[in-house]
Amino acid sequence: DVKVTQSSRYLVKRTGEKVFLECVQDMDHENMFWYRQDPGLGLRLIYFSYDVKMKEKGDIPEGYSVSREKKERFSLILESASTNQTSMYLCASRAYTGELFFGEGSRLTVL
Amino acid sequence: AQSVTQPDIHITVSEGASLELRCNYSYGATPYLFWYVQSPGQGLQLLLKYFSGDTLVQGIKGFEAEFKRSQSSFNLRKPSVHWSDAAEYFCAVGSPNQAGTALIFGKGTTLSVSS
To answer: What is the pLDDT of residue B100?
Structure first.
């Protein structure tokens, strides 16, 4: 079965802390994505990666960075967390047939 | 600009009744089309997808969707809704040339099922 695993389901951090959200896929997919989900706003693309060490900004990259050192792992980094980054974060990888496979999500609260 | 519109934010349907969730898209060419479902606190699960061919596609859990090019629509249907179908539903579009591109999602429709 296809598997996208996000390391943390729930996190609580303080303003100014550095936050790492990890995502691992076991399907050998080249494309991986980080979305942010907020009520009434749907899914908004933060960053995506189409190959190891390659990354592209999405619609809302400000305040975020990413790392893709290995094909199976795509990390989202909040250099200095702020309260407006409290949200659900969804990682996905894209199959060669076009659809996305999602992880369970990481709910981040920044106090 | 590329976009996806789900006109209904929230729909309530009686258990056993039929369901139709609307999706309209704006895209330069015929895109790949998807419907996803999300249960509370979970990630998104693919219900069905359309790439080409027959415009009526079948998915999991008894759902189907019809692609209408003339209306730029891809509406999701189910003939008889079950209480377990209560969830949030997202329509998405993507490029057939998938290298280095992301899916664009609508804002979602929340489905409630009444007994």
So the answer is: 60
Give the model's confidence band at A97: pLDDT under 50 very low, under 70 low, under 90 confident, else very high: confident
Whether residue B96 is predicted with pLDDT greater than 80 in this model: the reply is no
Using CA atoms, how far apart are residues B36 and B115, in angstroms rounded to an integer? 24
B42–A99 C-beta distance less than 8 A: no
| Cα diameter, chain B | 45
Contact indicator for B84, B114 with CB cutoff of 8 Å: no
Q: How far is B46 from B10, CA to CA, in rounded Å?
A: 20
Tell me what the pLDDT averaged over chain A comes to. Answer: 94
Q: How many CB pairs under 8 A join A and B?
A: 59
